[in-house]
Design brief:
With about 150 residues, the protein is mostly helical. The chain is built from 6 helices and no strands.
Length: about 150
């Protein structure tokens, strides 16, 4: 392997051009990325609230609590992951691809853990359709962004 292979060139010796962003371009990209993260979280929160309200209106308090558990099972870990990404955007530590995959694994593992605990501890009162509705609505929060053409 040649030295220029590590710098982005191929074996024929061609160098891939490096894109250098100005400070203004970097700030604009950071602003767009952070607003997209906030919009996604807001859409997920709205969809979760809709699921909780609909469950409460249709089936009562136990269903609303079940929908809250389902919505929180994914929304809370996702909010922590988004916070980590925002710290990477604005802070000095940059997020790496490994950070992204670890964050995704954390989100999925946390959701499975919360849903498993809810199934085990809520055997007598848990309303499964409402819990799954809360989870599904938060997972599909981007549909709200698509509807209003605000997808990041």
């Amino acid at each position: 392997m040649q030295d220029n292979d590590l710098a982005g060139g191929d074996l024929a010796g061609d160098m891939t051009p490096v894109v250098v962003l100005s400070d203004e371009e970097r700030i604009a990209m950071t602003r767009r990325a952070s607003s997209g993260i906030f919009r996604s979280l807001a859409a997920q929160a709205i969809m979760g609230c809709v699921a909780i309200l609909a469950s409460w209106l249709v089936a009562g308090t136990d269903a609303a609590v079940s929908a809250l558990i389902g919505a929180a099972a994914y929304f809370v870990p996702n909010a922590f992951f988004a916070l980590r990404l925002l710290v990477g955007l604005f802070g000095s530590s940059r997020a790496s691809p490994l950070t992204f995959f670890v964050g995704e694994a954390f989100k999925l593992g946390s959701a499975v853990l919360v849903l498993g605990l809810a199934a085990w501890l809520g055997r007598g009162w848990l309303v499964w359709p409402a819990m799954l509705l809360g989870l599904l609505c938060v997972l599909k929060g981007y549909v709200l962004l698509l509807l209003f053409r605000r997808l990041p």
